[in-house]
What does this fold into?
Amino acid sequence: MTATGETPPATGNTRWSRTNRELRRGLVVATLEALQRRGELTIRELAPAVGMSIVTANKLLRELTETGTVRTVTRRPTVRGPKPRLFRLPPTRFVTVHVAGGSITAVAGGFEGDGTAVTAPGGAGPAQLADLVVRATAAPAMDGGPGSGSTGLNSAGSGSAGSWARHPPAAGRAGAAGRPVRGPGPGSRTAGLSGVVIGTPPGTGPPARELRDRLDAPVRVHSNAYLAAIAEARIGAGRGHPAFVLVAADPETTVTLVRDGRPHEGAHRAAGVLDRYLAHLDLAHLDLDRVPPPVRRVAGAVVLACLIADPELVVLAPDLGAGPEAVRAAVTGLVLSAPRIVAGAVPGDPVLAGARLLASAAAIDDLADRAVGRAGPRADVPGPVNGHPGAPGIRQNHDRR
It folds into this structure.
């Protein structure tokens, strides 16, 4: 910066340095993703998986081990010759939360797998959510084995994608109510959490800042439909499709447009909420009175989505109470070009699955930042993956709430 406060234009050396840093970061992210998918790898196994020479992989892993980004484990037994070194990711903890109606479900997880789900009745107030997060961290140990938490969501070589907005806790920092907030210490159950991802009904949810102060951990709040759309785009029925529409009950009927793996959530996490508007629209000409009410509601949402977005694919969430065949029969002839309508294909809870994808990708991104010695503005959702075209991504400021 000059004496007048202006930033000088980047010189050739500056641009070259920045390019080298981004290329190095891309190799680091690709290495961490490979370890996340496979659990434990030797140098000879990792090099072809990432597209590096063995010499480059050896040098990079040595540097990552020195910074604590990667750890070495017990070597595999061999018949003869030296035993190869094994590398794996360090233990990482995060919590995913699904607020649905009058109940809340929280799961503590990490790269190794997920723990036992903890469910409690109640609303989505900061106190209730913080208490459930603490209880989830005390649930039984994680299962699933190394690599079971693979997401492959981070963007290799595309900047600081998919990580958390940093607000490090410090002793004596004022909390939401003006009280000092103690930084996470050895006795804190939430000490060491890489983050918390919370899914709530549209337009609701606690302020992320207040929860962050209560838990001393980075927090994100998204709509349930948004997180479910990320899961469908990455591991569900929308995988490999450049654009599709997800219809879900959140608990209101919600239509989420996903383009290039990027769900559109809206400025207030309420994009595509149709229930409150369908009652005021004159849909008599659609002749939907012939179908049952659950199918009628979903069919009306599909027709409106076709009029606005003309999607090739429509994915129906499992909580709608209407199957693809019934909805397809109801909308046939009502739109110019009927889309392909399929059921969601995410195993388990799609909201928790999407939250886990975000939390895992953000943890990988934080490790990459540690490795390259950079901490800067954070993105909200990871971008498309090198070699994984179906991965979700969106660039927006997460700490806007």
Notes: The CA atoms of residues 72 and 87 lie 5 Å apart. DSSP finds ten helices and 15 strands in the chain. Confidence is low (pLDDT under 50) at residues 142-187, 375-401. The two ends are 31 Å apart (CA to CA).
